[in-house]
Amino acid sequence: MISISANDIKGLNVYKSSDGKRVFEFDTKNNVSTYVTVRGLVKDTAGNTLPKAKINVKGGAVKGTVTDEEGYFVLRVPKNGILQVSYKGMATSTLNASSQLMVTMKKEESR
User: Fold this and answer.
1) Vertex 6, ends 5 and 12: CA angle to 5°?
2) Report field, pTM of the whole predicted structure over 0.85
C-alpha cells in the first residue's frame, strides 16, 4: 500500500476530494483537468423524481453515486466518461458525461 501525505502533493496538479479518499489527476502538459463535474436530475416519464437511482461510470474508473431524496446527483468523472443510470423497474440509461444532465428513465419492457 502506498500512502501520500498532503505535503507530498503540494504544488502538483492534483485535486483531493472533500472526503480525502480520492485524488484526481490533471493534465500537467496543458494544466487542464481530465475530469468533469456532472450535475444531474433523474426522473421518470411522468416527471416524478427518482431518489436513490444509481449512477455508475462505465469501466469503473470512478466510484459511482446515488441520487438524493429529490433525484439530484453530483459526480466527478473522467472527460468523455460514459454514465450508466439504473433504478428498480426501469431500463438502464447510458449517457455521455456532460456538466449538466437531465435523465428520464423509462419502465423496463416485459420479456
Assistant:
1) 115
2) no
| 83 neighbors 95 (Cβ within 8 angstroms) | yes
Q: pLDDT digits over 56-106, tens only?
A: 999 877 889 999 999 999 999 988 899 999 999 999 999 999 888 899 999
Element (DSSP H or E) covering residue 73? strand 72-78
Q: What is the rounded CA–CA span in Å between residue 60 and residue 2?
A: 21
- The correct CATH number of 10-105 out of 2.60.40.1120, 3.20.20.150, 1.10.3720.10, 1.10.150.130 is 2.60.40.1120
Helices (H) and strands (E) in the chain, counts: 1, 10
Rg (CA), the chain: 16
Distance CA 90, CA 100 (A): 21
